[in-house]
Amino acid sequence: MTRAGFVAVIGAPNAGKSTLTNRLVGAKVSIVTQKVQTTRFPVRGVAIEGEAQIVLVDTPGIFQPRRRLDRAMVRAAWGGAEEADAIVHLVDAAAQLGDSGADRRAREDVDAIALGLKRHGKAAILALNKVDAVKREALLEVSKGLFETGVYTDVFMISAKTGSGLADLKRTLAARMPEAPWLYPEDQTADLPARLMAAEITREKLYLRLHEELPYAAAVETTAFEDRKDGSLRLEQTIYVQRESQRPIVLGKAGQTLKWIGSKAREELAELLGHPVHLFLHVEVDEHWAERRERYAALGLDFDA
Ligand SMILES: Nc1nc2c(ncn2[C@@H]2O[C@H](COP(=O)(O)OP(=O)(O)OP(=O)(O)O)[C@@H](O)[C@H]2O)c(=O)[nH]1
Ligand SMILES: [Mg+2]
Q1: 96 to each of 86, 108, 134, 154, 169, how far by Cα in Å?
Q2: pTM confidence score
Q3: What range does the domain containing 148 cover?
Q4: pLDDT tens digit string along 34-44?
């Protein structure tokens, strides 16, 4: 008898949701950066545990939305939770204990998520992440406080980075999947279209390099994706920034920054796609990128959220 189902991984921005998803899947399916609000739309990754296929749905961080893109991202995250057979609420334990502005915001987001779960009548598994970065005694206090909300069925202490505690969590998730035939072929780990995955990889490199300088509304689109006769792939992508003043930031001195981004993305793409890749990057200014309906449709986001 096989099992299969969906697990939504929800949480405040930067909790480690994408890191956890990748780690459980055992392959990179979702991009990770130190910047908050990296994930913009739900990304699926397929993990296997014994007879169970666990489809993890990595979601955008849930926070107090202000702009249109924020609202669409948060709506998509809750949508992922609505449809799932199980929900993991991932919490950055270090942020629960810190007192920087970002930590306080994260705590507000965590409390709001617990309330949201309660309102939706959803039970969730609480996973305290980044235990590698905090003292064990402090963790107990944090987990006690959150558990008292009554919305959680279990608590796990994990590190998505080191893998600590993940075997236990994975077994629990497998047991919660309904009896069903598998949803994906055995060897499939991701289901993002290659063009979109390629754009995500470049966006990751862009943010890894420029997370402090770039506004979060920067975006990447794949505009050409061709097989060539010699077995290589030819990709063209456009990096959108919001202001003319951001173009030189992305280019860097003598184009060095863009070159670095391109070569990092190209290396990773070649490995992922199993073919040599020729990658051509363009930088364009589009002040209204985040206000264009067609962009949302391309990412599966609701423009009117
Ligand atoms: N120390 C430590 N850092 C972690 C752990 N898990 C994730 N991180 C780091 O936390 C940062 C955010 O990780 P992501 O996986 O992108 O977080 P996310 O929740 O997907 O973030 P958004 O998509 O922006 O909502 C990255 O710098 C990770 O390397 C962990 O277990 N321990
Ligand atoms: Mg993410």
Answers
A1: 24, 10, 10, 18, 21
A2: 0.96
A3: 3-176
A4: 999 999 999 99
